[in-house]
Amino acid sequence: MILVRLGDKIPLSLMLYADDNDKVVKANLITFYPRDEWVSEILLVSRGDGIYDNTDYAMPADVTYVRAYYDVFEGDGITSAGYYRSEEIFALEKTNPQFVNKITTTFNPLTDVQEVLAWVEKDGQRLTAVTDCVITVKNSAGTTVWTATDAAPNADGIFKVENSSTVLTADSNYYVIIVITAEGVARTSIQSFITVG
C-alpha cells in the first residue's frame, strides 16, 4: 500500500531480478470511488539492477484510491514474461498552504509619523513575488482610522507605508487589517496594532 497526497506524483515501481533489465513493464491504473474507471497505461523505465519506475502520473483529486496492475513482457512488449503484481495507492488530503501577513511598526513622536513594514509568509517562509499591500487601521468600534497602500515591495518582499495625518492615542485599542496579493490572490490577515504614548 502506498499513501500519496492529492495532486502529487504516484511513485510507480517494480523490482525484478537484478539481470532483468530488458523487459517491458506496464502499469494499468484504475481509480476507485467515487469515479471507478480505467485511467491510463503507463510504461515504466528500466533503471538497472532489475528496477523499473515511473513518476509521471499525478494522484487524481477526485478519487479515494488507485489500483496499479503491473504486467511484465519480454522485449517485444507482447509476450508475457509471466510476472504480475498489483498494489493500491490511497489518496491523502493535500494540506493547503498557509499564508500569513505580518507587520512591524514604529512611531516617531517628534514628527508624528507612524511607519509600518509589512510582508507575507507562506508556510513560514517570506515571499518576495508579491504586490499591492493595503494597510487599514481601525479602532475598537470598527471605524477606519487611517489606511495606506504600497503597490510594490522592496527586493526582500517588504512593503513600507507611513501615516502622519492621524495621531493614535495610547489609551485606545486598535487593530490592523493587512491585505497583500500573493500568488495572484489577495491574502488578508488581522492583528492587534500597538501604539506608544
Notes on the structure:
Helix content is 0%, strand content 59%. With 197 residues, it is an all-beta fold. It has 2 domains: 2-92, Macroglobulin (MG2) domain (Immunoglobulin-like, Sandwich), CATH 2.60.40.1930; 99-193, Immunoglobulin-like (Sandwich), CATH 2.60.40. The strands form 3 sheets. It has a 7-stranded mixed beta sheet, with no helix packed on it.
> Helix fraction?
under 10%
Rounded average pLDDT = 89
Structural class: mainly beta
Work out the number of β strands: 15
What string gives the helices and strands in order?
EEEEEEEEEEEEEEE
CATH class of the largest domain: Mainly Beta
Unreliable stretches covering 5 or more consecutive residues? none
Strand order in space, largest sheet: 1-7-6-3-4-5-2
Number of discrete domains = 2
- Going by CATH, what is the homologous superfamily of the largest domain? Macroglobulin (MG2) domain
Overall shape: elongated
Under the CATH scheme, the architecture of the largest domain is Sandwich
Q: What name is given to the CATH topology of the largest domain?
A: Immunoglobulin-like
Q: N-to-C terminal Cα separation, in Å? A: 62 Å
List the helices and strands and how they pair.
Layout lengths: L1 E4 L6 E4 L8 E9 L4 E12 L2 E4 L10 E9 L6 E13 L6 E10 L4 E10 L2 E2 L3 E10 L4 E7 L8 E5 L10 E9 L2 E9 L4
Key attributes of the depicted protein:
197 residues; mainly beta; Immunoglobulin-like; seven-stranded mixed sheet; four-stranded antiparallel sheet
Condensed summary:
With 197 residues, the chain is mainly β.
